[in-house]
Q: What sequence folds into this?
């Protein structure tokens, strides 16, 4: 096994091994645990960088281990997977710093960080999976690794949320399994191929393929929180803030969306999907999710719950971008994979800061909080405007390409969905900002903790600032080389090339 | 090569017998003797595996007498896998028992356990149906004695019932053997396979044998004896009953079905499949209803045994491989689960599910073992259970009988429901502390290792499949793909 | 050398105020509001025009200033900002509200950037920044009435931005290149410019408060303090009018019917402004009517330009002058009136608002949302909840439990077991 074949394994191991070691660390060895975590995160980032550099220069990274006769455990770094790997690596590093600050002094930290690392391992595995069975494997692993994080607090609410999460995801995983096996019996291979491997298949009835498509998308849609499969997500926000951040930005929700991209592009192939006539229903479901999620978010008073519904709406953008059959919309969907992650993680970090520093959980308690915590709220503001789609922030670029792609593909109705969604986004984010900056603060915060001169601990403050800066940077420098946008364009040229 | 000439298969029977004798004779040294024997058996099985890989399927004529008269032993890939499973699980149980039994119990446990191991190995290696009967009977008796080892009314009732079932099953089987011997004048499987033809006597023999074996395998609705017996036994005994003993009778059924009764119609296969599916669902539902952990695990065994029978209507190599994989991964996973339950019982003195939260938080390794084993049982990747489910599902869809797939999927969901019901308690905070007895590290670690084996089974599939194809036990082209 | 200087000045003009908007970066600087204007002043002092392409920025953007009218616009803007800075920061040494300085600088950056932008996206970006920034200026530390007015402005802003966003999308889909000149050329020759024109016209008309979309303008003038009100004419309205000139394919396209309608609306706006302005007793709102009048003039001119491209090409520069002078005029009025009022009246008490501070469309939106909640938004979760509860109840259902239990007990009985066993044997034999 040479260097290029081992690299994907190393990327996985860089979080798996620290995670396994951390499980056995005693609770009080904070320094060892933190440094292990950070070392793993940095190492993963470096390795991911090496792989991006390699791919850009034409190298191939592929690990192939036999799993079943005719089916391999295949880890492969292609341009699409690298988009997701780099995103997870960066955000994992940031979230690790945040989590170390957030959980300071709370019980069961070894367990928490162990599963945290496993969760990222599974996410990166999902990203690197080179065929559907490997994908399935890591996808289920993700379910299992996330469950302990959701129920981490151990309260009755958390337990119920965990149960709901399991009911949804295990059922979804089952559908995915059925679809995968069926597909395998029809096609005889499961390996992701650019532009799909099913279009050349003759003899398979298109009805069966459509049913399989529905099964796969339903299985993946549970994690991507497409309606009506989204019920677990708002409940899962009882998890600690770093978990919510990771859950909404990278790990679970994105794994579902990423899977849908994979199925549509590399299993069915976009042209073949369009021929089967499955893309329009998918687009309609995504559009319904966008509007529905925003509508529900409008009525939530719990900050994290509002953000959760906002995630439901925003992740559907990715699916929408894929389902509008056209290269430009695809760029929008793919780039939103990154942009939504960066923005949403900022929002959750800020929500966590408010909860941890001042004990604020509800929007009605946020009056005037901008004066008490200006940096946190500045980060929140940037991310919220990004979500609304205000230029020049990240969300603008995504919406821009989605809208342009919809026009390009002759699906003008999407424009109205985007406009409506922007309006609703403004409707549920701007009141928060207004309350935070312009209303007079209440006499006392619900549960304030003092942090000396700073508004809060640095480990809590730095991550949202970094991600808020990223939100600005990826939008402002969208046309610079190696920006997410350019990478998404690069991927799309592969899918839509001749 | 000298090592290749050693009849490893025969050694695998003689060694545990010798171990049983010596444990019986020197009860004080039972523990070290038993452990040494266990290790030796593992080496023997490894040797046999090497031999089979080098030379293909093996046939030993014990004492130099040939097939019609003497006792023949036969080893192919299927045998080898069963022996390996027994060896690994047996080693785990041996280590676990070091901590579990006190001196007094250990004196009884070790000879019986070694005896049972010998019977199992002999059963898997037997090449004629009468030998199979003898080993089956020995196995049953040893198992009943082990169940009774726990003492107490529950255990004795369970043991008694188990004894009667065991005798009834063996009796039926013996009648079938007699009929076949009467018709064809041989008990050697290979000979019978050549001579057998459809006739009323054969059908009657088949009916008797299959029914007897189903009773011993505890296929729904004949599972009535299993939960009480398995739940009331001491933890290591529960583990070996669930993991190994019920599999032995299934192994006989499989051998007979493949070699002697290939003419058995599709209708019979469908009936077995139907019973299997019913077992999967019934066992799963009953498991969900239980309030005691060990009962729950026992009912899950009923469900898992149902999976094995789903392969009969599918009747393809993929299907058989899948069933075999269920068998292997279930053995490892269920051992781990019973061990974990044993730890919990040892620690807290009870296994009421609603009060588990007080216990499991102090036993992180144990609950990890339980969770990992649960992953395999419910068939989530990466685990042996997942591979099994995949293969069975693939076979079901390929053969166009997708309805068996539904039973498979529903069974998985039911298992997931009860596994998470238990695992969820690991994360709730309990107010009431528990006065507890420290659990020896060996017991916790063994449980964990067995669970890890169940997980690893999902990652080293090609090797195991290569082993399984030695001697082509399932016939066909030799490829399971 | 000169190009490097002018390029860096071009970038610094919007960038410096943006940077200074962070309190930490300006804490040591005296009078940051004036310092932020320095690059723009130097830029004005340079004799010739300049431009710079920034292909890495956003979707490929640029900044530039021409030698003629654009310079005038910038000059007027800078002047207005300086006056506003003076008014916001009384020289008496009392410390100004730090947050207001940030808002001021943000709005300033947006405004200067919008004037300098050379393409649709850049213009859109900066004008959005300016819009939200201006909203914060309106809302900061003011009374209830002005907040209410500001809220109206915000809604107008969001809706207008959405429309303009769609317009940019259409332009991008048609033209590919988003520089003003390219868009003007392509949209002028486009076969179906209707939607684009409509979006641009309505979007900017909303932002400029062109009659009959002026409803947000009057309350704003009524309630805000002079320092902000003087910016109203020169900043949001002027930039919106500038948007008309830059975005519409004026001089390239000939649409007599549309031009006539727009001309008519412009005339109607002038009439309205005169009539309503004369009847208006409150001196403070007078600038609003002047602004409406001026936008009416501009609209009429634009309508003429749409129906007669040649005329537009000849007189286009006057449009810029009109925009520039509009800002200046409104500002002068506001300052003058403020001065007059300060001399003649004691400071007016904040006006009492009618009890309910919600706006009419907020009532309407709320009603719609409640209706939606009843009809659809709540149905799905409720259905799902009902379903889950039903499933749970089914599982807890006594009959079920009893069936399972008794089934198992039945199977556990010996007699039954043996019977089953025999039955199975017979079945197997005869199958």
A:
């Amino acid at each position: 096994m040479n260097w290029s074949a081992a690299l994907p394994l190393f990327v996985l191991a860089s979080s798996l091994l620290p995670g396994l070691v951390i499980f056995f660390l005693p609770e009080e060895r904070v320094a060892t645990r933190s440094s292990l975590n950070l070392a793993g995160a940095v190492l993963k980032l470096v390795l991911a960088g090496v792989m991006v550099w390699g791919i850009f220069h034409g190298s191939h990274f592929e690990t192939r281990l036999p799993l079943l006769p005719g089916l391999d455990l295949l880890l492969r770094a292609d341009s699409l997977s690298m988009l997701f790997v780099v995103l997870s690596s960066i955000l994992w590093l940031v979230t690790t710093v945040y989590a170390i600050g957030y959980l300071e002094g709370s019980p069961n930290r070894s367990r928490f960080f162990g599963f945290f690392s496993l969760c990222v391992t599974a996410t990166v595995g999902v990203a690197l999976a080179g065929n559907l069975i490997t994908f399935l494997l890591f996808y289920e692993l993700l379910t299992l690794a996330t469950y302990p994080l959701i129920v981490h607090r151990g309260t009755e609410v958390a337990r119920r949320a965990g149960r709901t999460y399991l009911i949804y995801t295990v059922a979804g995983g089952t559908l995915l399994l059925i679809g995968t096996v069926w597909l395998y019996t029809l096609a005889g291979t499961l390996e992701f191929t650019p532009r799909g491997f099913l279009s050349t298949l003759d003899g398979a009835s298109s009805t069966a393929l459509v049913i399989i498509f529905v099964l796969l998308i339903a299985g993946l849609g549970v994690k991507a929180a497409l309606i009506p499969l989204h019920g677990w997500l708002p409940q899962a926000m009882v998890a600690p803030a770093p978990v919510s951040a990771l859950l909404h930005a990278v790990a679970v929700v994105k794994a579902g969306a990423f899977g849908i991209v994979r199925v549509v592009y590399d299993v069915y192939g976009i042209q073949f999907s369009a021929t089967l006539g499955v893309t329009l229903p998918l687009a309609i479901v995504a559009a319904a999710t966008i509007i529905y999620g925003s509508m529900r978010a409008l009525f939530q008073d719990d900050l994290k719950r509002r953000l959760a519904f906002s995630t439901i709406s925003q992740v559907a953008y990715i699916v929408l971008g894929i389902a509008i059959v056209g290269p430009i919309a695809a760029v929008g969907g793919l780039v939103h994979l990154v942009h939504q992650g960066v923005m949403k993680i900022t929002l959750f970090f800020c929500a966590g800061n408010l909860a941890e520093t001042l004990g604020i959980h509800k929007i009605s308690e946020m009056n005037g909080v901008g004066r008490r915590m200006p940096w946190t709220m500045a980060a929140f503001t940037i991310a919220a405007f990004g979500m609304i789609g205000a230029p020049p922030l990240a969300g603008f670029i995504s919406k821009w390409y989605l809208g342009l792609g919809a026009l390009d593909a002759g699906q003008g109705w999407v424009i109205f969905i985007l406009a409506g969604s922007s309006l609703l986004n403004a409707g549920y984010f701007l009141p928060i900002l207004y309350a935070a900056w312009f209303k007079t603060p209440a006499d006392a915060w619900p549960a304030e903790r003092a942090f000396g001169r700073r508004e809060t601990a640095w480990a809590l403050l730095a991550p949202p600032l970094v991600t808020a800066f990223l939100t600005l940077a990826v939008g402002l420098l969208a046309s610079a080389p190696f920006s997410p946008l350019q990478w998404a364009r690069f991927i799309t040229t592969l899918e839509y090339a001749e | 090569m000298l090592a290749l000439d050693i009849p490893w298969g025969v050694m695998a029977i003689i060694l545990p017998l010798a171990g049983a004798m010596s444990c019986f004779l020197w009860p004080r040294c039972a523990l070290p003797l038993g452990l040494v024997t266990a290790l030796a058996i593992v080496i023997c099985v490894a040797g046999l595996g090497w031999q089979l890989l080098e030379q293909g399927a093996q046939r030993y004529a014990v004492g130099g007498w040939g097939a019609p008269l003497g006792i023949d032993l036969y080893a192919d890939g299927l045998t080898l896998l069963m022996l390996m499973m027994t060896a690994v699980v047996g080693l785990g149980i041996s280590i676990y028992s070091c901590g579990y039994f006190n001196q007094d119990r250990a004196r009884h446990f070790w000879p019986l356990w070694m005896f049972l191991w010998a019977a199992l190995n002999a059963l898997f290696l037997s090449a004629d149906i009468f030998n199979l009967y003898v080993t089956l009977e020995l196995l049953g008796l040893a198992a009943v004695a082990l169940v009774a080892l726990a003492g107490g009314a529950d255990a004795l009732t369970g043991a008694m019932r188990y004894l009667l079932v065991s005798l009834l099953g063996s009796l039926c089987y013996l009648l079938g053997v007699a009929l076949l011997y009467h018709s064809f004048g041989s008990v050697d499987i290979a000979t019978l396979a050549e001579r057998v033809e459809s006739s009323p006597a054969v059908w009657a023999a088949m009916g008797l044998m299959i029914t007897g074996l189903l009773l011993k395998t505890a296929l729904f609705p004949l599972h009535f004896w299993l939960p009480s017996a398995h739940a009331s036994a001491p933890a290591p005994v529960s583990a070996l009953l669930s993991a190994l003993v019920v599999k032995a009778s299934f192994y006989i059924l499989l051998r007979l079905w493949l070699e002697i009764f290939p003419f058995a119609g599709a209708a019979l296969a469908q009936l077995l499949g139907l019973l299997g599916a019913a077992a999967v669902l019934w066992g799963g539902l009953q498991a969900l209803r239980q309030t005691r952990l060990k009962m729950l695990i026992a009912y899950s065994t009923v469900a898992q045994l149902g999976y094995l029978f789903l392969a009969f209507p599918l009747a393809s190599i993929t299907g058989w491989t899948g069933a075999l994989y269920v068998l292997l991964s279930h053995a490892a996973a269920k051992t781990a689960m019973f061990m974990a339950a044993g730890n919990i019982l040892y620690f807290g003195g009870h296994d009421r599910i609603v009060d588990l939260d007080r216990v499991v938080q102090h036993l992180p390794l144990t609950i990890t073992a339980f969770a990992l084993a649960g992953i395999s049982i419910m068939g989530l990747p990466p685990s042996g259970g997942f591979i099994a489910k995949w293969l069975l599902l693939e076979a079901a869809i390929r053969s166009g009988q997708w309805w068996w797939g539904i039973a498979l999927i529903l069974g998985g969901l039911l298992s997931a429901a009860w596994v998470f019901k238990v695992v969820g308690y690991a994360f709730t905070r309990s107010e009431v502390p528990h006065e507890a007895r420290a659990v020896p590290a060996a017991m916790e670690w063994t449980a964990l290792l067995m669970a890890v084996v169940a997980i690893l089974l999902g990652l080293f599939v090609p090797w195991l499949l290569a082993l399984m194809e030695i001697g082509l036990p399932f016939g066909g082209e030799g490829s399971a793909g | 050398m000169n190009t490097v200087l002018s390029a860096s000045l071009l970038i610094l003009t919007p960038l410096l105020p943006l940077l200074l908007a962070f309190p930490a970066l300006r804490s040591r600087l005296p009078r940051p509001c004036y310092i932020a204007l320095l690059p723009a002043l130097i830029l004005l002092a340079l004799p010739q025009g300049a431009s710079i392409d920034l292909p890495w920025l956003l979707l490929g953007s640029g900044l530039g200033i021409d030698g003629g009218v654009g310079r005038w616009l910038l000059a007027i803007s800078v002047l207005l900002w300086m006056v506003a800075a003076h008014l916001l920061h009384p020289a008496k040494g009392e410390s100004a509200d730090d947050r207001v300085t940030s808002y001021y600088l943000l709005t300033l950056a947006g405004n200067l950037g919008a004037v300098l932008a050379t393409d649709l996206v850049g213009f859109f970006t900066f004008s959005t920044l300016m819009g939200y920034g201006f909203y914060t200026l309106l809302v900061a530390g003011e009374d209830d009435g002005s907040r209410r007015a500001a809220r109206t402005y915000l809604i107008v802003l969001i809706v207008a931005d959405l429309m303009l966003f769609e317009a940019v999308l259409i332009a991008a889909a048609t033209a590919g290149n988003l520089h003003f000149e390219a868009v003007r050329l392509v949209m002028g020759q486009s076969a179906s410019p209707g939607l684009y024109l409509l979006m641009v016209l309505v979007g900017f008309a909303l932002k400029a408060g062109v009659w009959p979309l002026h409803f947000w303008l009057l309350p704003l003038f009524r309630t805000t303090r002079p320092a902000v009100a003087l910016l109203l004419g020169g900043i949001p309205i002027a930039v919106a009018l500038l948007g008309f000139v830059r975005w519409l394919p004026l001089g390239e396209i000939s649409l007599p019917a549309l031009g006539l309608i727009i001309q008519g609306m412009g005339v109607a706006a002038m009439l309205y402004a005169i009539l309503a302005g004369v009847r208006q007793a409150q001196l403070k709102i007078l600038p609003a009517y002047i602004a409406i009048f001026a936008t009416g003039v501009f609209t009429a001119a634009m309508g003429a330009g749409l129906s007669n491209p040649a005329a537009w090409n000849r007189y286009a520069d006057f449009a810029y002058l009109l925009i520039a002078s509009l800002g200046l005029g409104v500002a002068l009025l506001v300052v003058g009136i403020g001065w007059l009022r300060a001399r003649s009246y004691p400071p007016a008490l904040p006006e009492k608002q009618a009890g309910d501070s919600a706006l009419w469309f907020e009532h309407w939106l709320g009603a719609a949302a409640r209706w939606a909640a009843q009809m659809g938004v709540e149905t799905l979760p409720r259905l799902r909840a009902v379903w889950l509860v039903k499933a749970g109840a089914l599982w807890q259902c006594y009959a079920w439990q009893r069936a399972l239990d008794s089934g198992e007990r039945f199977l556990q009985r010996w007699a039954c077991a043996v019977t089953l066993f025999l039955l199975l044997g017979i079945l197997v034999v005869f199958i």
User: Anything to note?
Assistant: Residues 13-349 of chain C form one domain. The interface with chain B takes residues 401, 404-405, 407-408, 411-413, 417-418, 420-421, 424-431 of chain C (CB under 8 Å). Residues 346-356 of chain C have pLDDT under 50 and may be disordered. The radius of gyration of chain C is 32 Å.
